[in-house]
What we know:
- This protein is of the alpha+beta class.
- It folds into two domains: 109 residues, no CATH class; 158 residues, Alpha-Beta Plaits (2-Layer Sandwich), CATH 3.30.70.270.
- It has twelve helices and five strands.
- The chain has a five-stranded mixed beta sheet, sandwiched between helices.
Amino acid sequence: MATISPTTTKPNREEELANIMNRAELDVRMVTALCGDRPLNAREQDTLNRLLAERGDGLYADMLYTLTHRAFPIKQARHIWDEITQHRKNVNAKLGRDIGIGVAAHDYLTNASGLMKGVTIIEETKMASLANVATRDGLTGLFDQTSFKHRLKEELERQMRYGSPISLVMFDIDHFKKVNDTYGHAEGDRVLRQVADVLRQQVRLMDTAARYGGEEFAIILPEVEQQAAFIFAERLRQNVENFFKAEEQPFPITISVGVRTAHQDEPTTAEALIVSTDEQLYAAKRGGRNRVCQP
Length: 295
């Protein structure tokens, strides 16, 4: 990996919890630069230093997700990344040429370790186009409910296997029917898109943000404990409220949020986790709306 200058300042507990939720600004081109495939420019080096300070070993999980679109536990990600790097060197030596980090990652994860199954390599732009059509909500661009449920099941099984927590956040827009009835569905659609935009600014690469249905949204937060999930949810609630206040529109927009965390010592199913999180959401609505509820 390129030169890294980690911070020596130890953050307090609140800062650690908040930093867990910071979004890593990674794409495939950035990951290849981090692997030494090309020199980092000054902006990329600054980004790398910031990401490492914020994410620590979580940066390796982010890089794996960028390359594979599979979430790996932070505790194992550094080890997996080291194995991929060594696998790349071994294959390069045998072939007499560099296969690149992307091919090395997929070959190691599918063939050498068996950590990923059923991978098919297709041209990147076609893959992105197919993924958007097949898994995205047409209005907001977030994942749709079917894709969300599939990912939640996968993530829950993975995190339980490795002993890591997984949190689910669900929210809906307060009094949204009144917006549609008073100002029309076109205005309602605009609000949904803007709420989705605010949400996108809050999530990490390894998180899954979805439009669950109507005015309800859901976010899967792998490896996030209850307290950190609550901090994320409260910040999201505040950001939505502040965004629409800044718009100076004739009606306020707020959200009611429910949070629930699953642990290995309390086995659950995806369906049960959705139900229990939804119960917290409706507790927030019953409590007066524009608030976050957790057990």
